[in-house]
Fold this protein.
Amino acid sequence: MTLQPIRRALLSVSDKTGLIDLGQKLAGRGVTLLSTGGTAKALREAGLDVTDVAEVTGFPEMMDGRVKTLHPMVHGGLLALRDDAGHVKAMEDHGIAPIDLLVVNLYPFEETVAKGGDYDDCIENIDIGGPAMIRAAAKNHAFVSTVVDVADYDALLAELDANDGQTTLAFRQRLAQTAYARTGAYDAAVSTWMAGAIDLATPRRRAFAGDLRQELRYGENPHQTASFYTDGTGRPGVATATQHQGKELSYNNINDTDAAFELVAEFDPADGPAVAIIKHANPCGVARGATLLEAYQKAFDCDRTSAFGGIVALNMPLDEETAQAIVEIFTEVVIAPGASDAAKAVFAGKKNLRLLTTDGLPDPKAAQLTYRQVAGGMLVQDKDTGHVPAADLRVVTKVQPTDAQMADLQFAWKVAKHVKSNAIVYVKDGATVGVGAGQMSRLDSALIAAKKSERMAEAMGLDQPLTIGSAVASDAFFPFADGLMEAASAGATCVIQPGGSMRDNEVIAAADAAGIAMVFTGMRHFKH
């Protein structure tokens, strides 16, 4: 009894992609087609016989289409158990015919929000009848097939071909799971939008949803299963990028590529080229340059060892010269807002290198939520879009930073926001020259960053490390003067930090004694 024939189908879709082909093939199998509004019109214009739902219910569509399928003649046909004598009798008594297939995709609510629709537009694009029918049909999947994605049309037709116009229980179960996920995601989108629309920062209930983009080979480690879901926001980045070559991205590739692109987006292309190189979600080199090639080389020179097997992100389209430099070492992924044909040709010889291009850069100031699972729950917060204008920076030392130092301090501050805490970042001439990340002690981060710079100086044959004369950023305040003095010992001549420690006066006094300039931002950038 697992096989159920498709004799009568109700089609009501917002997205008309593939509709005519599906309708023609169902009609070719002798399936009776029911439909509503624009869907019925499109099918008729294609020469298909269609029965309006209004003819079945005896009620016209009303209230601007808000009421059309909410009727026992529709829901009875979807919900009736074909093997229950009482249900069958009720159908006979009330003239309700069974509906064996429901094909529905919902009003384009997410698209309306993405396009910036106003409150009333968004409300009008909340589908009511569609989700009600989907949930009814999916509940009755023992008898009814429920299709909510255009992507499943071919699978439905293949199932009918394989089973002489019937569907199997296993197939209907998979469709039902997809159907409930779709209505769940739809409701999640509505509730998330509404929380923002009414300025409700901490709603009593939150819903989370995503669409499968990719089944991954494994997670962070080979023994972990993993997959990649998109959230429908369309934010430029790894979720919306086009991959031009190379094997599929891994879990770690996706995580690191996202970190790289979000970091490089901090640097407006209008201010010049910028490149970020990421390893294990931390920057190992970030730089500006007169050209992309110069920016890449300066970023690479911060930590050439860690750059091997890293992720490279650019804030403008990749050119041939930069591509030539990138392929000189093993690189996992390159992501940029575009790439020239010549650059693609350079990469074509490196089959394992993935090239991703996007339609633009993500807006680093755009409001967004971030989620992190903990045992038994979920932490939700606003994305760190914090930005401190130059006018709001406060010099707290006797020595004032020069214009060049202030530029490096602001550069270092942008990078520090994307470094795992505790974060210490040394910058000189618009390029990182030492990065200390993820240490339990801020002093240790300062030491590690300085030591990396010393090693790079030796590798490059320099007389002294590039931290000499550098600017240094700390993502949070210095609780003691020791971290600051370590930075000064490494050659830093100016410091940017949030301030706010109980010992700020001691730290300021230490900076004055060392003759270095210090700037307070009043904002912290922890990243765990």
